[in-house]
Amino acid sequence: MKEACSGVVAITAHNSTDIVYPSQKLGKGFMCTASGNIAAVFIDGTTATLPVTQNIFYPFSLQRINSTGTTATGLFSFI
Fold this sequence. Notes:
The chain is mainly β. It contains no helices and 6 strands.
């Protein structure tokens, strides 16, 4: 059984500042409150601009969301 999420971190999109996770945990998933695109940087360093829909849980870990190319708002990572 997978461990449930134990918290949430608000994400501010930025082109060089990574998401700060407490206690060196990684995010288990991501969501936004307003649909759009995210310019994602994944934990392994790969990047992709992805369309995301509001209030949908996306089960991937992010290192950062770049502000350039991101139009979705209300960004959160679950830990």
